[in-house]
Amino acid sequence: MRVLMVTWGWRSHFYPLAPLGWALRAAGHEVHVAGQPAQVPAIVGAGLPAVPVGADLDFAEVFGGQVGPVASPTADPGTPDALAPRVTPDGGVVRFADAMLDDLVAYGRYLRPDLVVYEPFNLAGSLAAAALRVPDVRLLWGPDSSTELDLDRTTVIDPRAARLGVDDVRLTGVVTLDPCPAPMQVAVTGPVEPMRFVPYNGTAVVPDWLRAPAERPRICVTWGTMMAGLGLTDQVGVARVVHALAGLDVEVVVAVEASQAATLGDLPANVRVARSPLALHLVLPTCAVLVHQGGAGTTMTGLAAGVPQLVLPQVSDQHFNAARLALTGAGTALTAADATPEAIRDRVRALLTDDRWRDAADELRRRNRDRPSPADLVSPLCRLVKGERSPMTEAPLSFPLAAPPTIYHPSPQLIELQDKCPVAPVVMSDGSPAWLVSRYADVKRILTDNRFSRAAAGGADGPPQELGALETESLIGMDPPEHTRLRRLVARTFTARRVEELRPWVAGLVDQLIDRMTTLPRPVDLVEHFSTPLPVEVISELLGIPEADRHKCKTWSDTMMGDWRQDPEGTRDALDSFARLIDARRADPGDDLISALIQASDAEDKLTEHELVSLCVGVLIGGHETTTNQINMALLTLFRHPDQLARLLADLDNGLAPAVEELTRFIQLGETGVMLPRVTTEPVELGGVDLPAGSVVLPAFVAANRDPAAYPDPDRLDLTRSPNPHLGFGAGVHHCLGAQLARMELQEALRGLFTRLPGLRITVTDSELRFKQGLAVRCVESLPVTWSV
């Protein structure tokens, strides 16, 4: 896909486009950025190709008199007229568009882009996309831009469209970075996609003195040069703000241009100056309050940092930003007439002392953090280019879907849905409705957005359990903060450092198992003698399960992974057995995870007895079940692709790590391709579909890992694939706790098998394989192998 990005105006107008440009390029797409000549250094500095269009204009001349102040609204945010700024038909936006429109269209006809992406109020970008007859996306990157310009179509848009031979100008899609809950007034014919605001400020830096923690509450005052650039008088002035704060017991950091610093006069003792440009996003996390004029970039950076804001607006877009911010409770505003030193000081004091401001700001920070990243937007943009804007309206399909043709491919229905209906209504086996989600960006969002709850999906009222009692009795069935509290207790056992310390021991265990295999008559069942005992031994050793009980681990695991509703007694027996094991460990502690958890539980009362048992059982099952079957499926997959196997064997030491990542992406462990359903806790939009609260959502991991928008040639096994951001270990708070351990075990297992057993091969065909029934994870009953003498 070839994407033309269009920016205009100040350098900062380009910055919000940069992260999306990087994401598109990282996904293998071609990106070009068109902007006025003065913006070219900023574009090139961001590592993106720059194309100068139009001319550098005098903003004071172009915009003078056209962007006067508007009253701060007091009406409800649901009232459009309360928030809409006004730009006259003959204003500077229109004249600016004319200055660059012809150049932009001429370049576009040479480039032939598939998509045009531009920033808010960029009339030239909208008209150029219409002239080029390609989809366009407006990137709304500030509270002031989530609205429609009040431009008269008859006198402004239509004549220019006619000159370009365009019948109509319609906005295809919108990507909004604005987390403020207020109405979207942009007229759009396609999807509105949310995206996380990623602060970027070019070459801005942080002085060394600002890196140290503040001894007192730190107030950041940033004051741009917009008023001077527009030929308008600054009615407040940064000096008034700085001296107003002198009477507070705070540390004040002032970010200003060199020309403004000279106007400050003698600085109070609690004030220090940091010359612009300042990397505001790196400074704000250390600040208690942000004071500024209301520019969109500064407002959004403050929201992303979760810092309460005092806005002192003077021109229309600044007033609009201030109004939207005030409606969220994350900030407050003073007009120029009201911004006396006393009023400024009182407002800052209120922001410092009333926790409601910080709580509201922190909520917006979380809302921004939980939005899809720029990389997650690549897939929706690809769909937009294909003309896909709405889900299928046919009757819901039955889930599980039709079985795949081979064990190496997802269900054909799933792939069709990914192409035509990525968020599809389905009916589950118990007759209840759900939504099947198959595209990478949407699945990743489910995993990382806390509005899709795992806890709500558990229990008798939730969807059918894919992982049996494990779904409700362990970490994977919990949401924060309970999940966070329990996971923190276990996580130290699975750090990358700890896992690497275990590697020599695991390699030795692999050798021991292979030594035993070489004494057996061939063919040897790999499941019985290698792929099952290896991860069971590893996780049992970490937990501290006595060797005499380790043969029971597989039985406990199969019981908990099975249909616990049909066999509740079996589940209780497994839990009771583990409870007795914990009692024995409490009496005779060791250097293991169970003993450490018991100590934490007894000493600090961090765990109930039920939590302790469930947590240990979850670690046991998660620590070996999928690894066992990953070893089996990895061998089957490699022998199915002899060219890739030969490449791996030619450089085993360097090739194992990327090979394991690609095998994890490629292999479907579950029968349905879906694991760990979620339930929405509030209304949420996903992939262009509005899901009400209480909706069951089924993330199709196997389809997401084969999404062509995320991976070039996704059905091809490529053991050297890079980057490889697969979802094989999940994402978000439920990212697999033992991912590093599983990677290391699989690497050492493959290393040992291929180095110790030359000519290793499987002695049955795929059609002869038999899989265990009633389990969520695809488990072969046996896998006979042999090797050269």
Describe the structure.
The chain is an alpha/beta fold and 789 residues long. It is built from 32 helices and 24 strands. It has a seven-stranded parallel beta sheet with strand order 3-2-1-4-5-6-7, with helices on both faces. Strands 10-9-8-11-12-13 form a six-stranded parallel beta sheet, with helices on both faces. It has a six-stranded mixed beta sheet with strand order 14-15-16-22-19-17, covered by helices on one side. Strand 9 (251-256), helix 11 and strand 10 (271-275) form a beta-alpha-beta unit. The model is unreliable at 63-90, 144-152, 182-186, 389-394 and 465-470 (pLDDT under 50).
First-residue to last-residue Cα separation: 52 Å
Q: Indicate the overall shape.
A: globular
Helix content: 40-55%
The largest β sheet comes out as:
7 strands, parallel
Write out the strand line-up for the largest beta sheet, numbering strands in chain order: 3-2-1-4-5-6-7
Uncertain runs are: 63-90, 144-152, 182-186, 389-394, 465-470
Count of DSSP strands = 24
Mean pLDDT: 80
Tell me the quaternary state. single chain
What is the SS-derived class?
Answer: alpha/beta
Summed up, the helix count is 32
Strand portion, in percent? 5-15%
Write the layout of secondary structure elements.
Elements: E1 2-6, H1 17-26, E2 30-35, H2 40-45, E3 50-52, H3 59-63, H4 80-83, H5 92-111, E4 115-118, H6 123-132, E5 136-140, H7 153-163, E6 173-176, E7 192-194, H8 208-211, E8 218-222, H9 226-229, H10 238-244, E9 251-256, H11 258-261, E10 271-275, H12 280-283, E11 289-292, H13 296-305, E12 309-311, H14 316-328, E13 331-333, H15 341-353, H16 355-369, H17 378-385, E14 397-398, H18 412-420, E15 423-427, E16 433-437, H19 440-448, E17 452-453, H20 470-473, H21 482-491, H22 496-517, E18 524-525, H23 526-531, H24 533-543, H25 553-561, H26 568-587, H27 593-604, H28 609-640, H29 642-650, H30 652-666, E19 678-680, E20 684-686, E21 689-691, E22 696-699, H31 701-704, H32 739-756, E23 761-762, E24 784-786
Parallel strand pairs: 1-2, 1-4, 2-3, 4-5, 5-6, 6-7, 8-9, 8-11, 9-10, 11-12, 12-13, 14-15, 16-22
Antiparallel strand pairs: 15-16, 17-19, 18-24, 19-22, 20-21, 23-24
Helix pairs in contact: 5-6, 10-15, 13-16, 22-24, 22-32, 24-28, 25-26, 25-28, 26-28, 28-32, 29-30, 30-32
